[in-house]
Amino acid sequence: MVVGAVILAAGASRRMGGRPKALLKVGGTSFLALLTGTFRSAGVDQVLAVVSSELRPRAAALAVPGLELVVPPAPTAEPLASLKAGMAVIPDDWQAMLVQPVDHPLVHPHTVRRQIDLFSADAERPVVQLRRRGCGGHPLLVGRTCFQEILDLPEGGDGLRDLLRADPGRIIPCETADRGAFSGVNTEEDFRRLLSQETGGRPISHPFR
Description:
CATH superfamily: Spore Coat Polysaccharide Biosynthesis Protein SpsA, Chain A
Strand content: 15-25%
Distance between the termini: 28 Å
Low-confidence stretches: 198-209
Strand order of the largest sheet: 5-4-1-6-8-7-9
Number of helices: 7
Mean pLDDT: 89
CATH class: Alpha Beta
CATH topology: Spore Coat Polysaccharide Biosynthesis Protein SpsA, Chain A
Helix content: 25-40%
Shape: globular
């Protein structure tokens, strides 16, 4: 089974003062490199990252072994538009994809591997959502049978939340204590909290619900 990952990293990072989240570092490693390593360690076959055209001058900093970069044809800060740009170039042999915002860099490879295993074992339900204390985390795993539905989602809606709401019965819940799946970075305060690991056991940003 071929599983790929799409990292969404084309946002404007306005609440971070315009600092590209893809290039923020934890322990000297960029968010983009951390996530690429996580997916590769989990057995993901191909990793794509959708990045803004404004980052082209920093191509050297974005270069990560095992990662392919995708630049949307038109500038966008919307996650759904970025995802669709990534989906436009994914190979036909992907049977599932992991959708991952770049601002959640610390998810563990074992968590991702568990999602893949749950998907492989259930032929009826094509979505695997990480959950903790009633909240959904990242990445979200989506089977190929849902790809066209994602492409048909309207701009200006709730993005993948609309997909989740459309048919809750097709979701495989994956309960996890992995804080990295829920610890996102939207502000400088979030980033400081992430670096210190003082999350207080709560999500930092607002994950899929």
